[in-house]
């Protein structure tokens, strides 16, 4: 029955990995299709960032734009930011005088100028004492109108709505826009005048005179979920009116385009209106996403020609040299904004940049017409590729070994990655090879299905049945050849290690109000000991309370099972030292110590599964089990943690350090047996200190068993003076020697100590 116990129980597991792989491929394909255009797929987006670094844009059109930066030098020259809009008007006029093709103020103006006479007058009118002064201030010219006057002599735009919605790329952030309300915008196609655009809003409002003189342009920039800015919407809806982004307006100035034409997707719409899938400026046709966003494609060098605002303002005066240096603005579109020290620094795939720089780089990309594209059909192609490559990998895996299949998957993944890069570098097409590569590796895993995944599941079931009993070599053989008879009952010589976790009475009284803590401590320590036994190659059998038995030489034969049992005992002591160190490190259990008693015996026993169903356990019955349990019980009396019988000592004393403890008369035994304390490994055995202790201890036992208590007392004193001799064993012999010195030895004395069975 044992042979058939697990031979057929897990046959169905050989097909389970294939089912799991197929289900995983379907999940990957569906996720790939559903998230093909989502910016939340960060691994894909980071791969595209890497493609850009390998093959950046040429960046020649960046020279068509010029930054006027409000920097630390400008603040020191003019005063702290924000500046009155009269100062901004001077900047606009200075840029116009320098020959700028157009001027865009990227900092938002959709809030009252805090330094305008009007704003100051309102403050005084609301609570100041000098009402006449307040009225005079309110009658001064508006700074917005002064800024509007500056824009009346040059093409210009002003930034509004600097704060973006949470995610302008989602349809929930779209609003309705009427194309007829923008005279600079027209459309190709049919289906109505309303389009769906990312929704922006004025922070407060914009001065009508200023809005008439300079085109309000949305300056908001929205990063992806990982904080990197990769997309820039070009058209927004602002109070129901189509509004360009700062970058789009800058590109329009650079191309001398009076009109922008959008292409309506005839088959796509949402509740807000039709969807735009293309923008045309002059001769440039620019494909965009549903959110009218263009993906940033930055040049190798993201440096843009720039001038400090302080130099531009000083050029308006009599300083001819400075005025001459401002001639570099001639013919360029000028964007005025804060640098990254005074304003925000926005992360991009090429590092942190100021908003003004990002708008300029986006405008340069628009004028070049060089924008990477990711059409809607890419999601379908990538999802189909997942299933095709996954199926091919599964079929290939059936003919190769696991590592061969994995190597083929890795090679094909490299080809997919290379193909995606070639598509990007030659056609600007963004394809994602990662789902197909994942499918290849999943398919390769199917070769290990029946052997590995099924084996793991079978392993888990078996370990559950035997309560984490069997060592790894036995589990491996059971997984690979279930009918091998590993779980057959056996009659074999084994080494039995019996151990028990104990708490001294004082510690039990200290923790008597925390019984749950005690049980948890013992359970955790028992689990640690069981794992140590299994790692050492033994079978772990949990008994009642804190008692554990370990069997060596079963279920698989081991020629050195006695040495293995002794080595495992030493490992258990090390494990218990770590447990006690952890207890001492906690404020709740500081000072608490768990003691470990161990008995080791060897002999013939019956071993095998003993139980039924989930309560099945691998155990042993025989004299060696009883003797090991008996020796474990003597540990508290003798003090050493590990007590072995004569047979264990004879077969392993040349490997380990031992001290003979006593000769015991056991009820039911014909002759006394000697018991030994396992002291340590061969290094301890060969040490000078141990040899001295062992020699004195041997002479002590010889004198004691000969009945010469005077000589035994001398040898005891010598043994106790040896290094490391502070053990409870010598206190026992000191008491015995004193007793027999006073009362004499009994008749028939042989030095054996009687104990109960």
Task: Provide an overview of this structure.
The chain has 757 residues and is an alpha/beta fold. Helices cover 44% and strands 21% of the residues. It has 26 helices and 27 strands. The strands form six sheets. Strands 19, 20, 21, 22, 23, 24, 25, 26 and 27 form a nine-stranded mixed sheet that branches. β22 (595-609) and β23 (618-621) form a beta hairpin. The chain is elongated, with a radius of gyration of 43 Å. This is CHASE2 domain-containing protein. Residues 495-632 form the Guanylate cyclase domain. InterPro entries: A/G_cyclase (IPR001054), CHASE2 (IPR007890), Nucleotide_cyclase (IPR029787). It comes from Hyphococcus lacteus. Keywords: Membrane, Transmembrane, Transmembrane helix.
Radius of gyration from the CA trace? 43 Å
Question: Helix/strand-derived class?
Answer: alpha/beta
β-strand amount: 15-25%
Work out the number of β strands: 27
Would you tell me the overall average pLDDT? 85
Morphology call:
elongated
Which stretches of 5+ consecutive residues score pLDDT under 50? 1-10
- Approximate helicity band: 40-55%
**What's the number of helices?**
26
- Largest sheet: number of strands, sense, barrel closure: 9 strands, mixed
Roughly how many Å apart are the termini?
A: 36 Å
